[in-house]
Write a structure and sequence with these properties.
The protein is α+β, with helices and mostly antiparallel strands. It has a single domain (2-170), classed as Nuclear Transport Factor 2, Chain: A, CATH 3.10.450. It is 32% helix and 39% strand. The protein has helices at residues 2-33, 37-41, 69-82, 166-170; strands at residues 44-53, 64-67, 94-106, 109-120, 124-136, 141-155. It has a 6-stranded mixed beta sheet with strand order 2-1-6-5-4-3. The protein is globular and about 65 Å long.
Length: 174
């Protein structure tokens, strides 16, 4: 009977880990889209590495490696969040659709592959992949490595852009 209980506990632990990894990924997308830089930093380990490949077409110098939580947030995300080409309204700077996450769980580490579709600065579309290496820490799973690769990009013809910011929407919970 003990073997059976141990098997159930192991399976339940695995499911909880998979869900916690997905939650960290979703936290990343939401915190990025509302430009909550402090909370965004929380999804990265202190020694994390972000590798960016494919944004140099928007602004030279964005591609490359960013090492450590501080550099990732201040040298990459705050810089990309500050770039608002073509007089885009800040509330529409970014929005993510992230899908098809594949997770390979190995003890206290996990690797993933996920797709994203992002609208940037109201008139650009980026399609690419996220590759993550997660590490379990005492309070949550965090990104140890995040590689973002742009596979497709296009400029959209857009006019009369309007809507609501995600921050405003979230200020009125259901």
């Amino acid at each position: 009977m003990s073997d059976r209980i141990d098997d159930v506990v192991a399976r339940l632990t695995r499911l909880e880990d998979l869900e916690a990894i997905r939650q960290t990924w979703l936290d990343y997308c939401l915190r990025l889209d509302v430009a909550d830089w402090t909370a965004l930093g929380d999804v990265f380990t202190a020694d994390a590495v972000l590798e960016m490949n494919g944004l140099d077409h928007l602004v030279k110098g964005l591609d490359g490696q960013y090492r450590g939580r501080h550099a990732i947030i201040h040298d990459f995300y705050r810089q990309t969040g500050a770039l608002i080409p073509l007089d885009a309204k800040p509330m529409f700077v970014t929005g993510h659709l992230s899908t098809n996450m594949q997770i390979k769980l190995e003890g206290d580490e996990a690797t993933t592959l996920a797709y994203f579709f992002e609208i940037v600065a109201n008139d650009r579309v980026l399609i690419g992949t996220y590759q993550h290496r997660f590490r379990r820490e005492a309070d949550r799973w965090r990104f140890r490595v995040l590689r973002i690769s742009i596979r497709y990009r296009a400029k959209l013809e857009a006019s009369a852009i309007g809507g609501q910011s995600l921050t405003d929407i979230l200020a009125h919970p259901v």
